[in-house]
Amino acid sequence: MIRGARWCMLLAGVVYGATRKNALQRFEDNQREFRQQMKKLQEEIIRLPFVEHDYVEKIWTNVETENFPVTEE
């Protein structure tokens, strides 16, 4: 009985680790994509030194809403 419990706990740990890794990997992929978009946005802002504030605000708002959609839970 003890051996069976140990094997069950081992398998449960392996399954938990695999699912946790997949969840963290998806999160990191989203963060990496967001950082790349922010870098492109910063480069665009630097390239255009005399842009209107409203234009920059519009770009920023678009990036935020695309990456962090508001959902009700």
UniProtKB/TrEMBL annotation:
Main location: mitochondrion
One GO cellular component term noted in the UniProt record for this chain: proton-transporting ATP synthase complex
First and last residue of the signal peptide: 1-17
Pfam families: ATP-synt_E
InterPro entries named in the record: ATP_synth_F0_esu_mt
Location in or out of the cell: Mitochondrion inner membrane
Protein keywords: ATP synthesis, CF(0), Hydrogen ion transport, Ion transport, Membrane, Mitochondrion, Mitochondrion inner membrane, Signal, Transport
Ion transport found in the keyword field: yes
Family: Belongs to the ATPase e subunit family.
Protein's job: Subunit e, of the mitochondrial membrane ATP synthase complex (F(1)F(0) ATP synthase or Complex V) that produces ATP from ADP in the presence of a proton gradient across the membrane which is generated by electron transport complexes of the respiratory chain. ATP synthase complex consist of a soluble F(1) head domain - the catalytic core - and a membrane F(1) domain - the membrane proton channel. These two domains are linked by a central stalk rotating inside the F(1) region and a stationary peripheral stalk.
Subunit-level organization: F-type ATPases have 2 components, CF(1) - the catalytic core - and CF(0) - the membrane proton channel. CF(1) and CF(0) have multiple subunits.
Name the record gives this protein: ATP synthase F(0) complex subunit e, mitochondrial
Record organism: Aphis craccivora
Lineage: Eukaryota, Metazoa, Ecdysozoa, Arthropoda, Hexapoda
